[in-house]
Amino acid sequence: MSGGPGRESAGGMPPAQPMPHHEGSATSAPRREDHEPSRWRSVWRQLPLLGALVLLWIMLWDHIDVLTVVTGVLLAIGVTRALYLPPVLLSGRFNPWRGLLLGLRMMFDVVSASVQVAVLAIWPWWKPMNSIIAVQLHTRSDLVTTLTAEAISVVPGTVVVDIDRERGLLYLHALGTRTAADVHRTRRHVLGTEERIVLAMGTHEQAASVRQERRERRAARTEEHR
C-alpha cells in the first residue's frame, strides 16, 4: 500500500522529525567577569585612599623616614582590608575647573557665615531659633555623602548630627531657622554643596544626573514665572 503523510517507517517506528531550532541555544551564558569590575581596576581606585592614609600617618609622626612610610603603608592596607567598613570607591574623575569653583564657594560660605554668626552673637535683640533639618541627598555615594557632611559642618551655623546612609539622609542642626523659608534655604544650600562636589569629583553618571536635575529645576522656575 502506498503510505500517506502519516505512514510509519520500517520497523514500525515513526519517521524522525527535525529537532526544533531555538535561536540563541548555542550562545554561551555571559561570563561572570564581564559584569564584575576588574580586580586591578578596583585596586587602582583604592590607591588615592591608601595614599591619603599614609600621608595622614606621616603627618601624625611629623617626620619622614623609611620606617614611617613602611608602617604607614602596612597600616593603610590593614585598615582597608581587616576592618569591616563599606568600600570607598573613588570615581577616578576630577574636574579642575569645578574643583576650583568648589573651593572658592567654600571659602565664601565660611567667611560670610562667620560674619553672620558673629553679628548674631552680639546682637542684643536676637532670639535664637534653631532646627534639626533632614535633607534628602541626590546620590547614595558614601564618598559624596561624607564630603558633603564635612563641607556643611565646616561652615559656621550648621553641623551634621546624624547620617542615614541607607536612605541618603543628612540630619543637621541649623542656626537661625525661624521660618519655613529659612529651612528651605538651608536645604537648598546643602543640595547645592552636594551638586558642586559631584560635578568636581563624582562619576560621569552622577554628574549627568545632577545636570539633568538642574535643567528640570530651571524649567520649572521658568514655568512658574509665566
Structure description:
This protein has 226 residues and is mostly helical. It has two domains: 37-82, no CATH class; 96-217, no CATH class. It has six helices and three strands, in the order H-H-H-E-H-E-E-H-H. Strands 1-3-2 form a three-stranded antiparallel β-sheet, with helices on one face. Keywords: Cell membrane, Membrane, Transmembrane, Transmembrane helix.
How are the SSEs ordered, and which strands pair?
Elements (H helix, E strand, L loop, with lengths): L38 H23 L4 H17 L13 H27 L8 E6 L5 H13 L3 E7 L4 E6 L5 H22 L2 H22 L1
Antiparallel strand pairs: 1-3, 2-3
Protein name: Na+/H+ antiporter subunit E
Main location: membrane
Membrane topology: Multi-pass membrane protein
**Topology pattern, helix = H, strand = E:** HHHEHEEHH
Structural class: mainly alpha
| Number of helical stretches of at least 4 residues | 6
The backbone outline, from C-alpha atoms, is globular
Round the Cα radius of gyration to an integer and report it.
30 Å
**Count of domain modules:** 2
Query: Main sheet, how many strands, which sense, barrel?
Result: 3 strands, antiparallel
As a percent range, the share of strand residues is: 5-15%
GO cellular component, one term: plasma membrane
Keywords: Cell membrane, Membrane, Transmembrane, Transmembrane helix
Region (Disordered): 1-33, 205-226
Transmembrane segments: 42-60, 66-85, 106-126
